[in-house]
């Protein structure tokens, strides 16, 4: 098959890790007889430097015209960089919000899984993690307080700010359907997280999730308050299979969940919409402090490329091949510095990419 | 001295644990020559049963007329109880929100501390907790999305809900001042948590916190994004001293922080306003599943009573005496079932109260 992939390296370690993921995609193309056409686009700080804005309309249009987008990371040290001395809608992260909304990517899928080879990195005690956990966070990505009106005004000399959190039933329904579909192929267990004892959006969320659940009698659904979920993730993460939640809660809980795996450098993500076009990116950030040093872990981005193959191109076998290659390299004892432990062989970004590509 | 204390036992285990805290307060009164006058008020499910609403105006007025309020817990099994078959503003938790707002309690102080005797209960690995951690969460309690307008409507047959998150500078300033004051008496370190890369309320929050920080040159202040904070609490909780945040983020993060101590049955809280009147309650909930069994841990409520003595009555010595008594009882090996471990002596709610009272 032929496919058009937009590459958005972004800032910080972005270019280094995207280069390795591209290397892996090239290897897949060669081995399985596919042809990927790439176009590199600017987004984030690098786009601010080049065009004065974090994502130009032209880049957004090019992303829309592609079959899939592979992203590194955007942004820098908030507050310490020239990129943050401007209006909020001109900062690097605004590019990310703009592309999510522009591409209609309402479903953010973030697997948080404990790799058996990296069990020691988990900050939780062995008796809590048992033989590991494997959660999928399904976060709504184009609604909620992220995309309601934001306003700051001065009334009688007093500054006041307002952010509007809003959801309509269709926005909730489509992400709920995706979550139940994902759960059906996994542990058949959805935990829907909200704050229904306080928020109207959460009460609507709960009602709509219950309605959608009726079409999935084979999937168990449970509702949990967000504060409780933040506790349960630490106390008993193995109770979860698929966690379904709104944008802001998903932002917080998915980071918490990824940290309890102990290896955020390993975690991929996919942001999907109604069609096949998706955006794939590592769960971690741009790590400006280690940019350019050749030590960043490219695995999260490589695994994001695997998700790209699976979700945007339906290349399940190829996706599996990438995932297996990663596991084999880990089994062989190779580690980047962030996941290094005694007795293992430390390698840099490029070598890690090479090693994984070789195993495909 | 003489003081008027409103007791609000509430639901579930509430009455059992408040009885033990009262026992301790009585012992303090006797030993130190004070006189506490008590009035018992209904709030939560029990008030719904009695009056059809979670907190009557009369009870609120009586709470206002007291010097301090000691609360057990309100609510039951959400969804499984008759208390939740009514409109949101008639549910048990609405009583809690109403009393917080009615008493102007804008500052919620929740210490999350690892008790040295209970280190084993911490879900984090020993190398992460080191010789323990001791955090204070300062949560804004009467603003933000909790108290903005909540609305659900149907437009062209589509249900839509909206919640408004709002803060003005004065609301931020007063909680920030409290946080810096608390930090000054502790580790002199404030981490202010927001989502300034997305929310206007967070950008205002950050600006006002920086303004307040100027009056506290001896206190270090750092800003952290809420998603990052949710990670850092798990990865490196010892970096924190005082965490300052808005209402919703504080709800989530304080529960996460309390869970990483591993003993939520031990954690107290105080909700304060501009004057001396405060509301004191355990950080845990009403635990309906173990209500009436005599096994609930009363220590969080007893330690909340200690905070009551300290903040509402300026009885620092007496507060310390209660805290020391709790430590001695733990040292002597007594445990309720939730904190039980090998070689310790298991006791019930009443015995635990007796043991602590005896040590005063
Ligand atoms: C950079 C930021 C706007 C973004 C978000 O909050 O969604 C990030 O934290 C994420 O989770 O992808
Ligand atoms: C019961 C609920 C409304 C309350 C809150 O969200 O504030 C509780 O979770 C808390 O933290 O005290």
From TrEMBL, chains A, B:
The keyword Cytoplasm applies. Its EC number is 1.1.1.85. SUPFAM superfamilies: Isocitrate/Isopropylmalate dehydrogenase-like. The record marks 146, 195 as: Important for catalysis. Its main location: cytoplasm. Mg(2+) binds at residues 227, 251, 255. Keywords: Amino-acid biosynthesis, Branched-chain amino acid biosynthesis, Cytoplasm, Leucine biosynthesis, Magnesium, Manganese, Metal-binding, NAD, Oxidoreductase. It catalyses: (2R,3S)-3-isopropylmalate + NAD(+) = 4-methyl-2-oxopentanoate + CO2 + NADH. InterPro entries: IsoCit/isopropylmalate_DH_CS, IsoPropMal-DH-like_dom, Isopropylmalate_DH. NAD(+) binds at residues 285-297. Catalyzes the oxidation of 3-carboxy-2-hydroxy-4-methylpentanoate (3-isopropylmalate) to 3-carboxy-4-methyl-2-oxopentanoate. The product decarboxylates to 4-methyl-2 oxopentanoate. Homodimer. Belongs to the isocitrate and isopropylmalate dehydrogenases family. LeuB type 1 subfamily. This is 3-isopropylmalate dehydrogenase. It comes from Anthropogastromicrobium aceti.
